[in-house]
Structures are given as C-alpha cells and as structure tokens.
Design brief:
single chain; alpha+beta; Immunoglobulin-like; 3 domains; four-stranded antiparallel β-sheet; 9 helices; 25 strands
C-alpha cells in the first residue's frame, strides 16, 4: 500500500499530539483525525494516555525489523509486532526518531495489558474504508470504539481476508487513565508563534492551504522573517505584517500597455516590448508581438509570463520599440546576449538568505543597472537599422516588493488592462506609453 501522499502531515500530527501530551503530564497520545470548527479555530480530536496505560520506549530499527520509514502501515505493523513480543497489547509510533544506521531509534508508545483490547473488526462494521486512506481508517476505528463502549481506538494496519470477509486489526482503548480532548493548531504546534503564527491560525492552521509547518522561523531579507509550511510560506516584516504565499510561488506577467500618445510622424504606431529578466539562477529574454494600428488613448491587454518561482527578487529591463522595417527577433537576441553575459555579475551581487538560498536584494541594484546599461549599449548598436527605440527602463523587485505586490496590492484596471505594477512613462520621439504587469501567487 502507498501511504506517501498523507505521510508528512500524519507524522506531524502524531508528533504534535505526543508533545502536547508530554507537556501536560501524559505519557503520549495520538490523533483520531476527527476535526471540527470551534471557538479556538478548527480543533482536532486527540487521545491522551497516562503512564498507567502506556509506556514510552526508543526502539531500534533492528528490533522493529527495519521498516520503510515512508510506509506508515509498515511502521504501525512493526510497532504492534514488537509490542506483542514484549508483553504489551499493542503499540504505535510517535514519529520521532534519532540517530542513523544500526543505532537509529524510533519513538514508540506501548500499551499495557488490561487497558486495551485487540480485536479483528469486520470491514463492514467499519464502513468498508479504503485500506490506504489513513485519516478515514482512524476516524472509522474511533467511531467503532465509541459505539462499543470504549474511549477510543486505532488501526494497527494488519488486515486479513477471511471466509466471512475482510477484517482489520484494531486496538480498542478502555476508559482507564486515558482522556479525549480537542486540540487546535496552536496546541499541536506551539512553536509557530507571533505574527506568523497568528496568520497561520487566521487562515485555518492545519486545515488551511498551508498545512503543517516544515521549518523554524528564519531570518529573511531586509530584516524580515519567514516560516515554511507544507503548502506554502508566510513572510513577515514589521511594516507589512504577515503575508502568505501559496506554494511559495509567484508569477510575474506582462499584462498589456496604455498608450496616451503615439510617436511623431504620420499614422498609427506599431509598438512592441522587449524584456530582459534576471534573477538568482534565472535569465530570460523575450518579446511581445507587434501591435498594429495603435492610436492615441489605446489600451491593449495582453499576457506574457516573464517569471514563475519563489519570491527571491528579479530585475526586468523593459524596452519599447516602434516597428518600421527591422526584425524584432534580432533585437531580442541582442537583449538575450546582454542578459546572459551579465549573469556572473548578477550572481556576485546576490545575498544569501537562510534555508531560502540566494536572493536579489536591494544591494543588487548596481549590478542590475550595469545590466541595463549593457542592454542599452547592445540596442544602440542597432539604431538606424530598421526599428526605433522609444525608451528603456529598469524594474528591480526585491523579494519583499514581490510579496507585497502579490499579496497586498490591489489590482488596477485602466481601459481593460489589469495590473499591479506599471513602468514609468516611455516618451521617446514624442510618444507616451506605460507597460503594465501583474504579480500574483501562482
């Protein structure tokens, strides 16, 4: 059976429940995987066991038979088999471990004889759950236990197909020195504190798109803080508050332009934009199509993705061209050459953020301006060879700016062109244009 799709969150739930139990004078505990809205946010059903019911032991991998750490069912079966060999009625892993190789040990909660009962329960009595659906297995086992006068129960993940049908190995815990309680996300993960913790709880804690925390709170660029979760990231600065980024991914997309006035000369314009994009480990050069018959006061919506990834900062060099008889791809290739040649200089200017890697912070501005100058020089070589340059601008977005734009900045709409960021005015040869961009979680 493949349990990997649930494993990280399930292991974290067990660890959080165990640590809560230990902080509150219980020997250990486990989640029953029921949850419901409550006055303290979403609460999660939890079973807490006193030392009269259970014993804790670090059991070596060898004693457990070297179960696959990623196979949750194998972990439970190994713990149960170890318990039976050593005079206990059953056991479950708390999902803590320490050491490596032959000395690796796994935290194990062992249930004493007399406080629990082992029973083979027919699949039909449990509602015929999917054997690989971990959370459902726990919920239906708990419900069966309650219907039959027990405090709680959990599956030991043994099963057998018998003449009368499939049965599931089940441990049923009596009322002796055990307690049922509802725990919220903060009870389970008290280390998620402060503004980042408050934001996590506001979004729903474990039930939010973020899910469980996967890192400590870390220092980040520009005196910020960051914490990673299974489904995203929360960033914090004192002047912005906490901001959540799903999947820790932001997309930057050119979304069109506003023309307030065309260039000198007869007739409408035929503009296009060139983009040179640079960031940590990322260089790209691209262009828009040629927009025909653009007259004053035109607003043209478009869509061209320039970047998709973690908010680590990017530089975007934007050039506005007026098409006459030149080849736009020739100009784009000159931008591409400049971007690629500037790569080592950009890399030297990167800042290292813990657990994040390299970021393009405020200090990289000088390197980006050098790239901008290189692109200016490259395009100047082509002046008079077909198309006209109406202007060139550099946009530098730090990680903080990317996150604020994506999560806090309202979207604007001018003539059907939607944007969160605009360039300054391009005004070469009497023209008047602004390029527009949308920055959003992806």
């Amino acid at each position: 059976m493949d349990f990997d799709h649930n494993f990280p969150t399930i292991g974290a739930r067990f660890r959080g429940t165990h640590e809560f139990a230990r902080r509150n004078d219980f020997m250990g505990g486990f989640p029953n995987f029921n949850f419901a809205p409550g006055s303290r946010g979403t609460v999660f059903g939890s079973i807490l066991l006193r030392d009269s019911v259970a014993a804790f032991r670090d059991v070596t991998a060898t004693e457990l038979g070297e179960p696959d750490e990623r196979d949750l069912g194998a972990r439970f079966r190994a713990c149960h088999a170890f318990a039976r060999r050593n005079g206990f009625i059953g056991a479950f892993p708390n999902f803590f471990h320490a050491g490596e190789g032959p000395g690796r040990v796994y935290g194990t909660i062992l249930l004493r004889e007399g406080v629990a009962e082992f029973r083979d329960v027919a699949a039909s009595e449990l509602g015929n759950p999917d054997p690989a659906d971990i959370s459902t297995r726990f919920r239906v086992t708990h419900d069966f236990a309650r219907r039959n006068g027990f405090l709680a129960g959990y599956p030991n993940f043994f099963l057998a197909d018998q003449p009368g049908g499939r049965v599931y190995g089940t441990i049923l815990i009596k009322e002796n020195d055990a307690a049922f309680t509802d725990l919220n996300s903060k009870d389970l993960f008290p280390q998620v504190f402060g503004a980042i913790g408050d934001k996590w709880l506001e979004l729903g804690g474990l039930t939010s798109f973020l899910g469980m925390p996967t890192s400590d709170e870390l220092n980040f660029d520009q005196d910020g803080k960051v914490r990673f979760f299974l489904g995203g990231t929360i960033y914090f600065w004192g002047d912005t508050g906490a901001m959540a980024v799903p999947n820790n991914t932001i997309a930057v997309r050119y979304s069109g332009f506003n023309c307030f006035g065309t260039s000198d000369g007869r007739g409408d314009d035929e503009p296009y934009f060139l983009f040179g994009v640079s960031g940590p480990g990322f260089q790209n050069a691209t262009r828009t199509r040629i927009f025909e018959d653009v007259s004053p006061h035109s607003n043209v919506a478009d869509s061209l993705e320039l970047f998709r990834g973690a908010p680590v900062g990017i530089g975007i060099d934007v050039t506005l061209m007026e098409h006459d008889s030149g080849d736009p791809d020739k100009y784009r290739s000159f931008v591409e050459r400049a971007v690629n040649e500037a790569g080592p200089k950009i890399t030297e200017a990167l800042t290292l953020a813990p657990a994040v890697g390299q970021v393009l912070s405020i200090g990289a501005r000088v390197a980006l301006e050098a790239l901008h100058d290189d692109i200016v020089d490259a395009l100047n070589e082509l002046l008079g060879t077909g198309d006209d340059k109406l202007g060139q601008q550099l946009i530098h977005l730090t990680p903080k700016q990317m996150i604020v734009l994506a999560t806090r900045t309202p979207i604007n709409d001018l003539g059907g062109v939607r944007f969160r960021l605009q360039t300054g005015l391009f005004d070469g040869e009497g023209s008047s244009y602004k390029a527009c961009f949308d920055i959003a979680p992806a």
